[in-house]
Design brief:
Length: about 675
């Protein structure tokens, strides 16, 4: 009987990803002084491996190499090896991913970097098999070559490390300039050229949802009336809703599609994708009134609240693509399996709708989808789906990464709050509020500093820019849903903390890590809106919104400085900065404020609120002054509402635009006349 291997240092970590490697024969260190001190003392290079617990190719490389005794002997003899969870330490991941892009022109996870003991990278790549094959270098060969170079060509290694570090430092500075409103049209044209008319989405396979691109196009349509923008949004949303990227049995979206039709996904499910998709499906419903978008948003929320919510109220990070070591096994079906659950007649009917066939559409089995049948929704479909879901629940589930990240929770709070408002759903509102309470009770340290990660009763890591910006976004959405001034106050305080900790006084914009954070080889700034919007983009949006809510021009000036700081990067590729341009569009649009004065529980107040919310006005600011003690507290935050009082003791609406206000009204018909010239009615 083989003796169980003693665990390495990672056994003491909380990260699910690091714990997956705690029994490797590799002598792993977590990122920290101990590892770099040893590397310096023993004059060894550092082997850095970055990934996350639900990453398919991270699993493959782990099984091939990091569980292999031969690889471990080589690493343990000649390197100091460090494992990093990119979701816990996005600051480290961001720097060394940028290094990988600079050195190889590409990136991804697992990220493999070799660097000097003072953290300067001189080799980078992604997945490597153990042995060289099919023209792809193997890890064993690469490590042996690096050992020789370290021993015999240290000067070249230092030269490469210095050059890459200089490139990273230059990238983080950026070149200031000015962004004109015309850049919005440039971004639209970029999307238009790459749009797939047949299947929706942009470019060719693989296709990523990138919901903030769709949000930009929705708001561009609203701003310009260009119907092509709305067409691109609707085609993409409908195609994703029909495709296998959507889990038609248990709901929620997978990470991305490996093909152009949205059929075969990479089966991993991420909290941030589902948060942003729920947000944009909700906004598409607000803009068009089409029930499909409400239905899909509702199903995403069902999935999140059922499967991805902790008992304390926070939201878990991700679900793996693999189960039983096979990608997608949990999600695919055969006709026999469906018929066994539903019976011959209903089973064949269901298989016809959802493309479940003997031939299969994925490695001999079938991913349920409605690409060819079109979306079919009725009670019979739902009954069949529920039966299949109950059976699927008995399968071996993919691994769930149950750490709770402040940043991704901020995105889900924003989506839930928006959904609660659009769908008049108190359950979504309560879930959003519970998550906020969780963060402020569990993810703030004794000094009042926000933290980034919570798991297994333990919070850690000083929060990054994304944590602050995304949580402020969520709080602002929650304020506009509940009109509870507490959330506005929290948003303002967090936003100020963010500016104090992350603002670049010399060049403008916001650094990714705070001035009180660990010192790395550079202090990076990110503006690219990739899988999720950058913290700078969301911060710009928040700054403009807060400026208009409380009437503080200093916040608007900060947003202007932020736009200027990244102007060259944004101008070089506008469509890669869609959320920043959503914020820029907001900045160029004339201000619209709607102040409702009245008892929050009064029927007349609710009638005005419902009328305002029946219009698609994505950049309008809505404020409720409830009067009394709450109104007095709100006036401390928003001084300009002090003179806005109810008319004839009735709920009253004040509609202001471009720094001028209409006469207050208590009449719904009058309010409708005022609003309908300023918005799209649904």
């Amino acid at each position: 009987m083989t003796k169980p291997r003693d665990p390495n240092r990672l056994i003491h970590e909380k990260s699910p990803y690091l714990l997956q490697h705690a029994h490797n024969p590799v002598d792993w260190y977590p990122w920290g002084d101990e590892a770099f001190t040893r590397a310096m003392t023993e004059d060894k290079p550092v082997f850095l491996s970055i990934g996350y617990s639900t990453c398919h190719w991270c699993h493959v490389m782990a099984h091939e190499s990091f569980e292999d005794e031969e690889v471990a002997r080589l690493l343990n003899r000649h390197f100091v090896s460090i494992k990093v969870d990119r979701e816990e330490r996005p600051d480290i991941d961001q720097i060394y991913m940028n290094a990988c892009h600079a050195m190889t022109g590409q990136g991804g996870w697992p990220l493999t970097v070799v660097m000097t003991p003072d953290k300067r990278p001189f080799f980078a790549g992604t997945y490597f098999p153990k042995e060289s094959r099919w023209g792809r270098s193997g890890l064993m060969d690469i490590l042996q070559q690096l050992v020789k170079a370290w021993e015999k060509d240290r000067g070249h290694i230092n030269s490469v490390g210095n050059r890459v570090t200089q490139i990273l430092q230059t990238q983080s500075k950026g070149t200031p300039g000015k962004l004109e409103e015309s850049i919005l049209e440039e971004a639209f044209n970029g999307f238009y050229v790459s749009f797939d008319d047949k299947y929706g989405g942009f470019g060719t396979a693989p296709k990523f949802p990138t919901p903030h691109n769709l949000l930009f196009l929705l708001r561009y349509w609203h701003k310009t009336g260009n119907a092509k923008a709305l067409t691109m949004v609707e085609k993409t949303l409908k195609s994703m809703a029909k495709g296998g990227i959507f889990d038609h049995i248990g709901f929620g979206f997978h990470r991305y599609s490996t093909d152009e039709k949205w059929l075969a996904p990479h089966f991993e499910k991420m909290l941030y994708d589902n948060a942003l998709l729920a947000y944009v499906f909700t906004e598409a419903y607000e803009a068009t009134g089409k029930a499909l978008y409400k239905d899909i948003a509702g199903k995403i929320f069902t999935y999140i609240l059922r499967d991805m919510t902790s008992p304390e109220g926070g939201f878990y990070s991700a679900k793996d693509a693999d189960s039983e070591g096979v990608e997608g096994k949990f999600y695919v079906w055969t006709p026999e399996e469906v018929v066994e659950v539903l019976g011959d007649r209903n089973g064949q009917w269901f298989c016809n709708i959802f493309d479940i066939s003997l031939k299969g559409n994925f490695e001999g089995k079938s991913i349920p989808n409605m690409i060819d049948s079109g979306i079919v929704e009725n009670d019979k479909v739902n009954r069949c789906r529920e039966k299949l879901f109950s059976v699927r629940e008995k399968r071996i589930h993919p691994h769930k990464d149950d750490k709770i990240l402040t940043s991704w929770n901020g995105l889900m709070i924003a989506a839930l709050a928006k959904g609660a408002r659009a769908f008049k759903d108190d359950n979504l509102c309560r879930a959003s509020e519970k998550a906020v309470d969780f963060i402020f009770s569990k993810l703030v340290n004794k000094e009042g500093r926000l933290l980034a990660r919570y798991r297994d009763g333990h919070a850690a890591f000083l929060a990054y820019l994304d944590d602050y910006a995304f949580l402020v976004w969520g709080l602002l959405e929650l304020y506009e849903t509940t009109f509870n001034a507490r959330y506005l106050k929290q948003a303002l305080e967090l936003n100020q903390d963010m500016l104090n900790l992350f603002w670049d006084d010399e060049r403008g914009g916001l650094f990714f890590n705070g001035k009180d954070s660990e010192e790395l080889i550079i202090r990076s700034k990110e503006i690219y809106d990739g899988a999720i919007p950058s913290g700078n983009s969301v911060a710009a949006f928040n700054l403009i919104k807060l400026s208009r809510i409380i009437g503080d021009i200093k916040l608007n000036a900060r947003a202007e400085q932020l736009f200027s700081a990244f102007a060259e990067s944004v101008s070089s590729h506008p469509s890669a900065h869609a959320f920043l341009l959503t914020a820029l569009s907001f900045a160029f649009e004339v201000s619209k404020e709607i102040v409702i004065v009245g008892n929050v529980d009064g029927n007349d107040t609710k009638a005005i609120m419902d009328k305002v919310r029946s219009y698609y006005m994505p950049n309008a600011i809505t404020i409720l002054n409830p009067g009394g003690k709450q109104g007095e507290e709100l006036q401390k935050l928003i001084p300009f509402i002090g003179e806005m009082r109810p008319v004839d003791k009735k709920a009253t609406a004040y509609v202001c635009q471009n720094y001028a206000c209409q006469a207050p009204t208590t009449d719904i018909s009058d309010l409708e006349e005022i609003l309908k010239t300023r918005a799209c009615y649904i």
